[in-house]
Amino acid sequence: MFDILFVMIFGLSGRVLTKDTDTKGRFNSPVLDVTEKQLIIERNQTLQLNCRGRWELQWVLPSGVPKVYHGTQIEKTVCGKKNNQYCSRLTLSPALAQHTGSYRCRYRQKQHKQASVYVYIRDSQQPFVKMHSEIPDVVYMKEGEPLVFPCRVTNPDAKVLLVKESVSAFNIHRLAPDHRNIIWNSRQGFTIRTPTFFYIGLFSCETVVNGVKYSNKFLTHRPVNEILDVYLNSTGLVHTLQGQMLALNCTVTAAWNTRVSISWTYPQKANGSANIIRRISRSQTNMLFYSLLTIPRLSKADRGLYKCHVTSGPSKRETNTTVIVYDQPFIRLKHRDGPVVQASAGQKSFRLTPKLRAFPAPEVIWLKDGMIAAERCSRYHVDGFSLVIRDVAEEDAGIYTILTGIQQYGLYQNLTLTLVVNVKPQIGEKTVSSQQAGTVQRGSRQALHCTSHGVPPPQIQWLWHPCPPKGLSPARLA
Question: What are the recorded GO MF terms, alphabetically (predicted)?
Fold first, then answer.
């Protein structure tokens, strides 16, 4: 048979409960039948609390009391001489150590109006509210905020120490409350007002009851939200074929102690067409997080924008790429500026670039006058699918052919271009016939020669200038 503890209040507070009161200005907040801020009862006793107010009431119980607990009973009635008040009785039997905490009675519609009492349910075999476990709870140390080790106790008079544990028994630190930085509160546990890096590690709250040591273990974690970099294995457009597999790897580089969440958005996300695998590794300076998205067999519906979203606390980053899905492999090759192109002798470089679209990327070979261009002259080299000619000369003119092919699919296509190299006109003789001025007999017939070269062939024009008045002089030609 359980012991029963009935909490009865006499005197002034008793009159408050029994006297019917005017609703105006009274019971703005509910009223409990206890005036103390805390109660202490023993394990397995019965806890009974009564609450009265102007409106409908509800109870808020400590987290240690299960929502469905066979020992919890709540009785609701209307009360007062005019039945214009609401009363509610909470009964908890048997009361257990883990039920220690704040019991609140509040208005259902005005939840900020409430009355509360803190109840310790003393248990010499369970001095901490939380049951003992070898697996530590994680507590988070945030910058600029106090650090709390929530080792609440079932007896307000318990003597508790905070212990920093270590692999070596000689490095164990036992910390007592100092009322400045280390604050003890039996309802909250230990609070470190200004935590330093010393408080990162494994800690425990310890107390001794009847010669037996009890503890609650905690592992502190200092969360960091520093995302250094986010990148995909493919930064440009991703070209692929229908039926092939797609694999996109999102890599996140973050500072030590950072934890990130990686998610994807992609065209067929609603259908769950992608498989996602995550992995974490560490380098000497950073944390690396990987999220690999794969689609085993692509369809045309899978083409579109793929985004990798990364969050760490308030920090957010993202990167994306576009996937283009083709029905089948192809080569499309045509002239860019017509079949004849022109360059000028003396140019530092000239690029032959037709219009080429193909997938997968084809093999490319350039021919000049039927022979492999790069083997004919060291000034020729292939850049992508273009042929680059350095230090253009007249002998570079000719017929060029680009051969493209995708061997695995048996696709081939060729295109021929004619290169014309323009050469500036040059005169072969600085003077027409003789370096020395001479005289000729009047009326005789003379032949003057001018040799020139250029591409296209230059036009020659003769100009004659009359001699000066003082005797004969040779004609000046230009």
Answer: ATP binding; vascular endothelial growth factor receptor activity
Domain carrying residue 288: 227-326
Strands (E), 150-269: 161-164, 173-175, 182-185, 189-192, 202-209, 212-221, 227-232, 238-241, 246-255, 261-265
pLDDT 10s digits, 61-110 = 999 998 888 899 999 999 988 888 999 999 999 999 999 999 999 998 88
**Max intra-chain CA distance, the chain:** 157
Residue 147 pairs in a beta bridge with 192
Which parts of 301-436 fold into alpha helices (H)? 373-376
Cβ of 374: how many Cβ atoms within 10 Å?
16
Rounded to an integer, what distance in angstroms lies between the CA atom of residue 66 and that of residue 98? Answer: 10
Asked if 392 and 344 count as a contact pair (C-beta separation under 8 A), the reply is yes
The DSSP code for 4 is: B
| Domain assignment present for 445 | no
Domain boundary among the residues 379, 406, 425 is at 425
Task: Round to whole Å and give the CA distance between 289 and 277.
Answer: 11
Q: How far is the C-alpha of 238 from the C-alpha of 260, rounded, in Å?
A: 26
Given the structure tokens 């048996």, which residue do they identify? 410
**Do 260 and 252 contact (CB within 8 A), yes or no?**
yes
- 427-458 tens-digit pLDDT: 876 544 444 556 778 788 877 778 888 888 88
Which residues does 211 contact at the CB level (< 8 Å), separation at least 6?
A: none
CATH of the domain at 209: 2.60.40.10
Number of domains in the chain: 4
Cα 27 from Cα 85, distance rounded (Å)? 9
Total-model pTM = 0.51
> Which three-class secondary structure state does DSSP give residue 385?
coil
Q: Is residue 470 part of a domain?
A: no
Q: Please tell me the total number of residues recorded for the chain in this structure.
A: 478
Same domain, 335 and 298: no
